Amino acid sequence: MDELVIGTYEGFLLGYSLRSEDNVTRLKQTFATHSHTASVRCVAIAGKFLASGGTDDKVVVIDLKTRKEHTVLMNHDGTINAVAFTNGGTHLLTGSDDGSIIVTRTGNWQIEKVWKKAHGGEPVTAIAVHPSDKLALSIGGDKTLRTWNLVKGRPAFTINLSSKGLTLPTEIKFSPGGDRFSLLSLQTLDVWTISKAGIEKRISCNSKPTSVQWINDERIFVGLEKGNIITLNVADSKALTYQGHKQRVKCLYYENNILYSASSSGEMKAWTVKDEKLQEICTNNASCRVTCITLNKQNHLVKKEESDHENETEEAVKNASDSDNSECVEEKPPMKRKPGAFVTISYGDDNQNEDIAPSAKKSKKRKRNKKPKNKTG
């Protein structure tokens, strides 16, 4: 099963996976780490690497195979607002409050490109990489949408969002095909097309949209500040509304007909998407304020449950005992280590003579010392 990875306001990175127990599906925790000293703002996964950025001005890279820190990047001088891997996993793009975008190669983690004033010195708030890995989009505090040519490593063009009626854009995401992308603003969701280089459709919501997740090139899910989740088609303005959470929907993620949602209160839910409708599978609470989520899609990197391992060992022991019933040999249990001792030395019968030998030598030495005294006397 896929593994859901969430970042929290308290600086934790938590992993959850869907597990079935007694015909009941639950979100069970797989790992937890406290790599950041402050709030986690963004997370991204490519291959075996998990990258997270926070308000402590650092990017932490975790190896999902070993579940340990692989490296820490201290290239920015401000809060890390965006981390995005290329789809091939060869490079990592990071954006910060210091106004810069840095491109880092994932093999040796060396900086390959730095755009110091990507948005005129204003903070970089979001980055999205095109599925072709040829270009990337970014939005920042200067209220502009900038396109970056990743092949030549230079900026391509800039669009002033204020002229398009957009204020304070917060999120940008590509559709799976890459021809469309979404932009979130105060009360609106704008769908743009790259072929037309403009807004295709503007959708007004009765509540502030907080997160968008593309299902395919036509249908999207939108999380609202009131806690509702709406689904709509780009070509059709009709929308279906679901009561997702009691508080603000912080982030959404879709994969393999399953939609994951998380609220700012820490509540997480998994939904099945069937015929464009949502049905709740299970829910859990992280007991932390969720800030961002991503998904580990590689099953071989998901840690197995300890209970499964214990059951396998028990079965192996039973099979071994059944096969060896004809010749039963009673074995002594291993000696328990004494508290405070790492090695215990025991002396057998063969060593007893060695223990006596030193005392015999001492007695001979005493006799030799006494002989001269008797001669003089």
Automatic annotation (TrEMBL):
<dbReference type="Pfam" id="PF00400">
    <property type="entry name" value="WD40"/>
</dbReference>
<feature type="repeat" description="WD">
    <location>
        <begin position="124"/>
        <end position="158"/>
    </location>
</feature>
<protein>
    <submittedName>
        <fullName>p21-activated protein kinase-interacting protein 1-like</fullName>
    </submittedName>
</protein>
<dbReference type="InterPro" id="IPR051959">
    <property type="entry name" value="PAK1-Kinase_Regulator"/>
</dbReference>
<keyword id="KW-0853">WD repeat</keyword>
<keyword id="KW-0677">Repeat</keyword>
<feature type="repeat" description="WD">
    <location>
        <begin position="73"/>
        <end position="103"/>
    </location>
</feature>
<dbReference type="GO" id="GO:0016301">
    <property type="term" value="F:kinase activity"/>
</dbReference>
<dbReference type="InterPro" id="IPR015943">
    <property type="entry name" value="WD40/YVTN_repeat-like_dom_sf"/>
</dbReference>
<feature type="region of interest" description="Disordered">
    <location>
        <begin position="302"/>
        <end position="377"/>
    </location>
</feature>
<dbReference type="InterPro" id="IPR036322">
    <property type="entry name" value="WD40_repeat_dom_sf"/>
</dbReference>
<dbReference type="InterPro" id="IPR001680">
    <property type="entry name" value="WD40_rpt"/>
</dbReference>
<keyword id="KW-0808">Transferase</keyword>
<feature type="repeat" description="WD">
    <location>
        <begin position="242"/>
        <end position="281"/>
    </location>
</feature>
<keyword id="KW-0418">Kinase</keyword>
<comment type="function">
    <text>Negatively regulates the PAK1 kinase. PAK1 is a member of the PAK kinase family, which has been shown to play a positive role in the regulation of signaling pathways involving MAPK8 and RELA. PAK1 exists as an inactive homodimer, which is activated by binding of small GTPases such as CDC42 to an N-terminal regulatory domain. PAK1IP1 also binds to the N-terminus of PAK1, and inhibits the specific activation of PAK1 by CDC42. May be involved in ribosomal large subunit assembly.</text>
</comment>
<feature type="compositionally biased region" description="Basic residues">
    <location>
        <begin position="361"/>
        <end position="377"/>
    </location>
</feature>
<dbReference type="InterPro" id="IPR019775">
    <property type="entry name" value="WD40_repeat_CS"/>
</dbReference>
